[in-house]
Specification:
heterodimer; A: mainly alpha; flat; B: mainly alpha; two-stranded antiparallel ribbon; 21 helices; 73% helix; globular
Chain lengths: 143, 509
């Protein structure tokens, strides 16, 4: 069933991909043009998706319960971290992110907070000071 | 003779203080990455690529560092196989079979030393092979025209799944997904914006390194979160630190057999180190398993797969350097690095950048010696790494990937793209769709298109040019044979499995 869903999804993507690509035109020079290769790709991609629909493998064991919640929490945390890195500054956002990740990985609050503090400092010194990647250390409002 | 002169020049490059220091650093970090379960060589190399950028390294230095990390990973993978019965990376699976029983019997230090020596023999064999064969292949590849390159890429995509038994439909679909992702961005020949949905961020297309770190490193973290309760990590005691020389040398001819088999597997497209280790083990078992000691801690059962996987990883560098077509996940990542540094691998690399190629090869010889020293007397240091708790390790991996990607363009957009690729990678791996063809498509897509267009420009639009050169025809023939074999194997496997299932369901029939 999973394979069939993936196959249907990829079939739709391939068709949309081919149709979108066929509208690309360039007025000069190149005998092949920007549309040819994407259109050429969409055909085997569509056929392979069909094969996936017609000959699916057995379902994989999908994640359920607590591990799934942990995964969703991690992805949400990573997205939030990416968005908050600049406004909150590196030290605070990394401290929060590492602490929460530690909690998701079933460590205690105190240990996670400690590793968050140590890690954010080490990474800041390594990347900002040693490797010269300009990072904003403190929240925007303070600096 | 010319080869030796070039190699001597290479040593001059490799022995500069910077490059030597980077090689040492790479060996050390690589062994740690290989040893830690959960970060394999692909992830390790991918995470550290941004480091090479932010250090502002010369291409040759960056390549030396990453190749040493790559070799180091192959040495390190065996450590957790032997100590924990958990392979540190995929090719080290075979080493658990005899390595862990031997460690359980109180001979852990011996097993580690034996496998370090086997790794050294395998990797050195492959490096010598690289020295001798790569220039030959590069010389032959100069005769390739655009149409031949197009055929070569078709072969790379069609055969990357190899004959490993994975569902060939899925492998091919994975390559298509990679090629489709590669066509996002401005078309290089005409400047038409393709699939950008009006977003300026996408005009340059997806940066392969961002995609790779997401696909491998982030998806690995998600996998770990899923399985974190299943792992029972009990380390066996190491025992005496340095075993006697006589005890280490028990491998005998198994070293050479493993090396040869592994090396051949490494050169073949899509086979790589895992197959090298597997084949070496199977062959060695057939030859040496006289008293039924294999699987119970036979030293030769450690020597063969370790020599095999290290020889394969050296062999896999040959198609990457000479043809620009990587044969494995890790070499694909290294190709991404070269492309990002504006170095075009392929046959011209050897004539255009001899310093880089020979500097790399020379540094591999040095890396092997360093790794042998690191992995026999200093192995205790790495085994101690294994007790590092995951709640420190995993956040660290995530943060280093984040900062690495952030450092490429200083924008949160790339980091979000990386997370999206991480989720995609997780789903694809769950569906048993291999990620290596995706990466290969992403990396080689634009080059494939350029060669196709160049070929058709030469012929004025006549598609017959694609099938007139003998080289291209030969490549298509090979592609066809390998594809046919892959489909045949997958169908017969399925039929056999179904027959077995039927028999179980209706035993009286």
């Amino acid at each position: 069933m999973s394979d069939r869903i993936a196959g249907i999804f990829m079939l739709i993507v391939s068709i949309a991909f081919g149709i979108t690509a066929s509208s690309y035109k360039a007025s000069f020079g190149d005998p092949l043009g920007p549309a040819a290769l994407p259109v050429m790709l969409s055909i085997p991609a569509g056929l392979l998706s069909l094969a996936l629909i017609l000959r699916p493998d057995p379902n994989p064991a999908w994640v359920t319960g607590a591990p799934l919640i942990r995964q969703i929490a991690t992805v949400a945390l990573l997205i939030a971290y990416a968005l908050l890195l600049e406004p909150l500054g590196f030290l605070l956002s990394t401290f929060i992110a590492v602490t929460l990740l530690g909690r998701i990985l079933l460590s205690g609050w105190a240990k996670s907070a400690l590793s968050g503090a140590v890690m954010s400092l080490i990474l800041f010194v390594t990347f900002d000071t040693l490797l010269g990647l300009p990072l904003r250390a403190l929240p925007e409002a303070l600096s | 003779m010319e080869t030796f002169a070039l190699l001597a020049q290479g040593f001059a490059v490799a022995l500069t203080p910077t490059n030597l220091a980077l090689a040492l650093f790479g060996c050390f970090i690589g062994t740690i990455i290989g040893a830690l379960p959960g970060i394999g060589p692909v992830n390790g190399v991918a995470i550290l690529i941004p480091l090479a950028f932010s250090l502002g390294l010369e291409p040759v230095s960056a390549l030396i560092m990453l190749s040493c990390i790559y070799y180091g990973c192959m040495y390190g993978g065996r450590i957790s196989s032997i100590m924990l019965n958990i392979p540190g990376d995929e090719p080290a699976i075979m080493t658990t079979l005899d390595g862990y029983p031997m460690a359980r019997a109180g001979r852990a230090a011996e097993a580690l030393a034996i496998s370090a020596l086997a790794s050294f023999v395998g990797a050195t064999f492959a490096t010598i092979g690289l020295t001798l064969f790569a220039p030959l292949l590069a010389g032959a590849a100069i005769y390739f025209g655009p149409a031949d390159y197009f055929a070569l890429y078709v072969m790379a995509f069609a055969t990357i799944g190899g004959v490993t038994g994975a569902n060939p439909f899925k492998t091919l679909l994975a390559a298509m997904i990679g090629l489709m992702i590669a066509s996002v961005g401005l078309d290089p020949a005409t400047g038409t914006a393709r699939f950008t949905f009006g977003s300026y961020h996408l005009y340059d297309g997806f940066n392969p390194i961002v995609a790779i770190v997401g696909l491998f490193a982030i998806s690995e973290v998600l996998f770990y979160l899923e399985n974190m309760h299943n792992g029972d990590r009990k380390m066996v005691p190491l025992g005496r630190a340095i075993p006697k020389l006589r005890d280490i040398m028990v491998g005998g001819w198994a070293h050479l057999r493993g090396s040869v088999i592994g090396f051949i597997c490494g050169i073949l497209p899509g086979a790589g180190a895992s197959l090298g280790a597997f084949m070496s083990y199977v062959v060695e078992k057939r030859i040496s398993n006289k008293n039924d000691t294999f699987g119970k801690g036979d030293p030769k059962g450690i020597v063969a797969p370790e020599a095999g996987n290290n020889a394969a990883s050296g062999g896999a560098l040959i198609p990457m350097l000479t043809l620009g077509v990587p044969g494995s996940g890790t070499t694909a990542v290294m190709l991404a690095l070269l492309i990002s540094l504006n170095v075009q691998p392929g046959p011209l690399l050897f004539s255009r950048e001899p310093e880089m190629v020979w500097g790399l090869i020379a540094s591999l010889y040095i890396a092997n010696l360093v790794l042998l020293v690191m992995n026999i007397p200093m192995v205790g240091l790495f085994t101690r790494m294994l007790s590092l708790p995951q709640w420190i390790l995993m956040p660290f991996v995530v943060m280093v990937s984040f900062l690495g990607i952030y450092s490429i363009s200083n924008s949160s957009f790339d980091v979000l793209v990386m997370i999206a690729f991480g989720v995609l990678g997780f789903i694809l791996r769950k569906l048993d769709i291999s990620l290596v063809p995706v990466i290969l498509g992403l990396l080689l897509g634009s080059d494939m298109e350029n060669n196709l267009r160049r070929a058709l420009s030469i012929s004025g639009g006549d598609p017959l040019i694609l099938v007139t050169s003998p080289i291209a025809l030969g490549l298509y023939a090979v592609t066809f044979v390998i594809l046919a074999a892959a489909f045949y194997l997958s169908f017969t496997d399925k039929r056999a499995a179904r027959a077995a299932a039927d028999e179980q369901a209706n035993p009286h029939l």
